[in-house]
Write a structure and sequence with these properties.
Elements (H helix, E strand, L loop, with lengths): L6 H12 L13 H4 L7 E6 L4 E5 L5 E2 L4 H13 L20 H5 L10 H14 L3 H13 L4 E2 L1 H9 L2 H12 L7 H12 L1 E3 L1 H7 L1 H4 L3 E2 L5 H4 L9 E2 L3 H14 L5 H7 L4 E3 L4 E6 L3 E6 L10 H14 L5
Antiparallel strand pairs: 1-2, 1-10, 3-5, 4-5, 6-7, 8-9, 9-10
Bound molecules: glutamine (GLN).
Length: 321
């Protein structure tokens, strides 16, 4: 395989290769807004570091990004707290489901990593403390990375809040251990809103480009970003290169929950999944690929999404291993 594969052909081919499997898995049904998403959707979008992009299927249809938001909030919390964040949350894979309470009791309220729910609640707590308007800060960060259309889906956020008993249990347990600075309600409100962010595959691939490019984000050239001048939009440093590498390490080891080992074996890319059926993977130095298909497997990762990423890596040879 050449080092510059034709990504437009590849995304079409991936879509064709997984077509017969679309519909596998189970759509998340803990809230109506997710339960009603048609299972037959599939989208894939790729964006390369040299500015190419391609997409296929339902790549422009917005969906609930859910736990993929944990990468954005982690980025913001690291910006505000730096390495001190790691006193409150670990860097180890959990090997347990994303919403498990088991380790939290044994490990005195310090979650294993920031990409499971308990860890993301600690991260959300930091944002509530450190930003006057944490949700505005999150939304403006994501919009600056991927476009002004992006918004919270308030119906999803309110359903999440109404069914947040398990997340509330984790938050209370962590509070009892002194690992939450704010009220459980304030933290849950921030967390449930971040989960409700609505984005499509093209936006997600664009938004996480900084993790592929040593922390530097290059906006897509558009009338909006160049204010009609036709100039090449300027790159912005979102995090430094070392931090981008470390976020990628966490995504590789923890981003797909208790399937992270198998995912590393099968796909071999840092990635983050969400129960909305999205997965974003980072190919360091090369680009990003986002897939979406709402049918989930046992661990809460999109069945067809994982399959599509396997095929993508097989066709491109793009893997960290
Ligand atoms: N809203 C979901 C929850 O908190 C997000 C989980 C996920 O996407 N894995 O349970």
């Amino acid at each position: 395989m050449s080092s510059q594969p034709d990504i437009a052909t590849i995304v079409q081919r991936v879509r064709d290769e997984v077509a017969s499997r679309i519909g596998e898995g189970r759509v998340a049904d803990y809230i109506p807004a997710l339960a009603h998403v048609p299972i037959d959707r599939f989208g894939i979008a790729v964006r390369t570091s040299c500015g190419q992009s391609a997409h296929a299927g339902d790549a422009e249809e917005p969906f609930s990004i859910q736990s993929i938001s944990k990468v954005f909030t982690l980025t913001l919390a690291l910006q505000a707290r730096g390495e001190a964040l790691w006193r409150r949350v670990g860097k180890e894979p959990s090997g347990d489901p994303f919403n498990s309470l088991l380790q939290l009791e044994h490990e005195c309220g310090v979650p294993r990593n920031p990409l499971i729910n308990a860890g993301a609640l600690v991260v959300a707590d930091c944002l509530v403390s450190d930003y006057e308007k944490p949700l505005d800060a999150l939304l403006s960060k994501v919009r600056s990375l991927a476009g002004k259309r992006i918004a919270f889906d308030t119906a999803v956020a309110h359903s999440e809040l109404a069914t947040a008993d398990r997340n509330a249990s984790m938050a209370h347990l962590m509070k009892s251990f002194g690992n939450l600075e704010n009220s459980v309600d304030a933290v849950l409100d921030a967390y449930c809103h971040q989960c409700s962010l609505s984005m499509n595959c093209c936006e997600l691939a664009a938004a996480l480009g900084y993790l592929a490019d040593c922390g530097s984000h290059s906006p897509v050239a558009s009338a909006e970003s160049t204010q009609g001048t036709g100039a090449t939009p300027r790159a912005t440093q979102i995090v430094d290169a070392a931090r981008a590498r470390r976020i990628n390490a966490l995504m590789l080891t923890c981003g797909t929950y208790d399937r992270a080992g198998e995912f590393a074996y099968e796909v071999g890319l840092p990635a983050k999944s969400g129960v909305g059926g999205g997965i974003v993977a980072v190919i360091p130095g090369r680009g990003t690929v986002a897939v979406w298909s709402p049918g989930l497997g046992e661990s809460g990762n999109s069945v067809v999404g994982v399959e599509a990423l396997k095929r993508f890596v097989a066709l491109t040879g793009w893997s960290v291993f």
